[in-house]
Amino acid sequence: MKKSLIALATLATISGAAMAQSSVTIYGRLDASVGANKAGAPATAQSTTQLESGLLSTSRLGFRGTEDLGGGLKAIFQLEGELKVDDGTAAGFNFGRMSIVGLQGGFGTVKLGRHDTAFDDIRDITVSSALWDSEFTPTKIAYTNNVGGVAVGHVADYSSRASNQIRYESPSFGGFTGGVSYGLDENAAQSRDVTAMNVRYRAGGLDVGLGYQEQDNEVSAAKREYTTLAAAYNFGTFRISGGYNMAESGMLESDGFVIGANMPMGAWDFSVAYAYNKSENAGVDSAKSKGLALGATYSLSKRTRLYGAYMTGDAENGAGTEIAERRLYAVGVRHDF
Asked: Would you say domain 24-336 falls under CATH 2.40.160.10?
């Protein structure tokens, strides 16, 4: 009996140690709102009342975990997919937002699978205080080439994620970090690889970075290149973020900027942002777009907040004629778990 108790105690100790060395977390976010959206040509665009999912941030379900391999080395994984709160869509659910496995240690982090590109990290800085990097962020009108089915004349905006991706993130060297990602197209008949890289510096309230991304296409004139310079600063009583974005595809070039600010007041957080983009085709003006957004959130707890926001913007052709517009407003609730 005594030997059995000792054996059970030893087994419990070993199991406890093993469990302490690895962890798996189930997490998610549910975001639903009521409002209206209007997008398209000014003469024909109609406002649609909607109960929408994921306007403040995408509703999602995910799993992430680590295993301590010893010597400072860890195995990591993460799976994350989009949910639709408005209709409860589950058929066809996949982990398209993130699906990676990798290793982490003193050398940095290596991730394999579908993930945000290294460039996306820097673009995120530009809009971190511009209506919380949400569907209300004014780049959603200023940087896009398609507004309600109307082709505007800009270089199409970048792909924020890439499949079949190899990604490396360096450790911090006095606040400086670097990253590179490469997504393979895995098709011998075409070349649509996605290559991205970044350099970033973080210290105190300052966050600044430079990012580059190249999206290949088998037609060389359709290859797209993006460069972004971003900065954000937290002053404590308020936060600001902004960035300058350049995009090229053949003879078409787009240059734009975004600036935003957040001001917390107790449980409230108010935000305002503006974005502008201009394009030229072979040196001739082809499009201009702008967007303005206002919003506020109210935290009921650390995991639940109410929000309301409004975004408006329009696009003009090279001659200065308005060809598209968008208006979006909504009030909603978001809960994290």
From this structure: yes
